[in-house]
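Render this sequence as a predicted structure.
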Amino acid sequence: MIDLVLYGPSGPQPLGRPAPVRVELRNTGGHDLWIAGVLDGSENGVRFPRYRPTITRAGEGEGEGEGDGGGGGEDAGSAESGAVVASPAPAEDPLVGPLRPADLRTLAPGDSWDPTSGPGCLPLMTFAHFAPRRPGRYRYTLTLDTDAARPEDWLGGFGVPVGSAREDLLALVARVPRTRVVADPVEVDFR
């Protein structure tokens, strides 16, 4: 029903600059799909939907997998294949902006959309800031998780509507399918 796709650049990328990695959500089902993009707190897992990016070393390579992106990961200086070199930074503050009805949108069957663009959507900072200083191949991965234990886990931390406005918003959240989708990884060569 939901396909999550990463697109990487063609050819080697220059060291010290982020690679242009794009995201696309596709409705592969037969009915309209309700979904939200990357919202305040989505990337670091504070709120739903959760968009969890990770960058790891791919294959054998020279140098270290250090970067200036995301949380860097505890293994940011490791040269080992598979070592996490960038992941979301921990939340500085668990309070996130409120979910608004406009944050939820429908995708018709066959439609696609970039969940990092448009009103209320944020870029994936882990991808946007990762700029390795050493050459090598890096694997970009992304997981979308909409499977909140409680619909209230979507609402945010402050400015949350009350009364009938809250109930109307929770009814929209209930339309989002509960799932966990992992995009096929994209490998980027930095030289």
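Summary. Residues 162 and 169 are 10 Å apart (CA to CA). Confidence is low (pLDDT under 50) at residues 61-77.
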